[in-house]
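name: query_chain
kind: protein
chains: 1
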Amino acid sequence: MRVSVIVVTYNAEATIGEAIASLERQTYGDHEIIVVDNNSQDNTVPILRELLAEDAGSSKIICSEVNTGFAGGNVTGLEHAFGEYIALLNADAVAEPRWLESLVLAMDSREDTGVCASRIINSLSNRIDSAGDGFARSLQGYKRGEGETPESYSKREYVFGACACAALYRRKMLEETGFFDEDLFLIHEDTDLNLRAQLRGWKVLYIPEAVVHHKVRSSIGHMSDMAVYYTIRNRDLVRIKNVPAGVFLRCLPQLVMSIIAEFVYFVLKHRKVKLYMHAKTDVLAMLPAAMKKRSLVLKQRKTSNDYLTGVMTPLCGNGFARSKFRKMLHG
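structure:
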């Protein structure tokens, strides 16, 4: 099989049927489906076995005894994958029939491209969830185009990164950069990988024809304790692991503004004081391990500080500030 599609599940009985059905409708046939279940306590696994019974030769179901998160689940899936390309699809996402074909044809056409990003549409609002991911000069990842109309992002173009809800990765790139960091568990594991890809000089191409409809945060909730904790903790860990000192200094004023905004949003607006402190305390506990990873990442970098800063988004650029302000008010 040329492409391995990895789907990670956890208590996904309500959504997994549509996700698998959408993969079986793909116009690109040279692919295998690898489902990694993170110890679901509902009927996810029985449903999967029934859905994939007829595709035993081109599908695998791997059952983990523990929940290793989105990051760990995908790492497990990669260990069982044979494809030249690795595609990821969330268990609460539905891919349109030409999704995989569009990604593969685009990747085939550009050898310098290590990642292809999809046009991901929020199923509830019919607005953009992600048109590729960006990384702002406030040193935080974000979903490009979030909340805007899908027609606004119909141009194929290079972007900073891809949302791992629905993306295609070149195996050769992953062999250089490594895959997801299992310590991140979930949330911003794709930001971490996007940064490593940029530091190694790989391009990320946004493919608007590759359309996926996503039930956003259906599994963990928008402001659940889990979502808040990993968002706060992992933002810091991603910065510590990957951002060169020179870039950090250039972006320090924007970073300070971001930290203040984060405090206002999570602590003052949503009263998540204990979670905020828990996340920050855990960052300190994980600091020695993160610094070891940083040493390895930066030792292998190929791009300059000027290049990295150039592909990052200014606070006033690409609608970033407007999007964040809208979230502060209504999120």
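note: The longest strand covers residues 203-214.
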